[in-house]
Amino acid sequence: MKLIHLTDLHIVAPGEALFTLDPAERLRRVIERINLDHSDAELCVITGDLTDKGLPAAYGLLRELLQELRVPYRLLVGNHDDRQNFVQAFPEQDRDERGFIQSVYDCAEGRLIFLDTLVQSHGYGALTDGRLEWLSARLAETPQPAAFLFAHHPLQSIGMPHFEPYDLLDRVAVANVLAASSQIRHIFCGHVHVDVSGSWLDVPFSASRGVAHQIVPDLVSRDAVFIKDAPAFDVALIQNGNVLLHRFRLGEREIIGGWPKNPVLEPVQ
Ligand SMILES: [Fe+2]
């Protein structure tokens, strides 16, 4: 199974800029590359901060941009999103019985579980108000052994002091749910605008620098320096519960060689 993971688009209303960036243009380039090289993917999951301020005009632009994507997509919300405006723009995206943007996608490789960690108007995240119980229930009813979690906020600390006020609040309760499950094979997350991966409670996780702006990975200071670097997205290949992750960055690209040599194949001496 091929899966695309995008995160942190931070789309703004048409005509506006984010710092000096045009987030829509960056997403356009990412979509072009996915359509060119990975249109065979089964699903594209975007793990939140879809917009920068949660405005209806930004969700409208996002919807337009996503019409070009040749891979079916599933959207999560992040701390920069507005749940109500999101639902108005994307009413077809699944929700749980309490209205949180939580759902599952069952496929040959197992169950993908999409979580809603948004606490409206706050930078930190949480799985309170029944969301964690929903996760427990979805894990309990999983008919196949493998489960893959998607959330905007990383479920664990990523070791950057800047993010401490913006972490997941109920980490201990979440840890208990994860520790009680042996099905979870990988956690895909966003929020942090840096490339980071590792493991938590024996479960691997990954986050990429995302599509919009990036943050210098400072492991000492609480300050954050925002930078403009190449947009990135991940391609996950999942087979028999194993996950292989490739990260693609959209910097300048020029073919300068390769094998076999192109366009003329030279005979081996
Ligand atoms: Fe973000």
Automatic annotation (TrEMBL):
InterPro entries from the UniProt entry: Calcineurin-like_PHP, CNP_phosphodiesterase-III, GpdQ/CpdA-like, Metallo-depent_PP-like
A Pfam family assignment: Metallophos
UniProt keyword Metal-binding present: yes
Keywords of this entry: Hydrolase, Iron, Metal-binding
SUPFAM superfamilies on file: Metallo-dependent phosphatases (SSF56300)
Calcineurin-like phosphoesterase domain sequence ranges: 1-194
Gene3D superfamilies membership: 3.60.21.10
PANTHER family: CYCLIC NUCLEOTIDE PHOSPHODIESTERASE CBUA0032-RELATED, PHOSPHOHYDROLASE
Similarity comment: family membership: Belongs to the cyclic nucleotide phosphodiesterase class-III family.
Protein name in UniProt: 3',5'-cyclic AMP phosphodiesterase CpdA
Phylogenetic classification of the source organism: Bacteria, Pseudomonadati, Pseudomonadota, Alphaproteobacteria, Hyphomicrobiales
